[in-house]
Amino acid sequence: MNEDTINLLRECNAGCKSGTNSMEQVQPYIKNEKLKSIIDKYNDKHIKIGDECHQMLNKYHEEEKDPQISAKAFSWISTEMKLMT
Question: Which of 3, 56, 74, 85 registers the highest number of CB atoms within 10 A of its CB?
Fold first, then answer.
């Protein structure tokens, strides 16, 4: 597996983690059952894709990448502010 493919898998894995974190952050605030069902569906898809990326990286003895702490913090704060308004 070449380095570009490994980097792409790492970025996809980090993106899935970020998406999952955001969806799980808003779930307690969702009152509409249809919206909750949609969020759950896409959260499950993000988890599945993230797991597949993780397995492929493990197969080639490569480390996965976590979302950057600054991006994670900004996303969390931004979401919380939007939820408060």
Answer: 56
Domain residues for 74?
21-84
In a domain, 15, yes or no: no
Domain count, the chain: 1
Does residue 3 lie in a domain region?
A: no
What percentage of residues in the chain have a pLDDT greater than 90? 72
Q: Taking the chain, what is the end-to-end CA distance rounded to the nearest angstrom?
A: 46
Instruction: Give residue 82's pLDDT.
Output: 83
Q: How many CB atoms lie within 10 A of CB 4?
A: 8
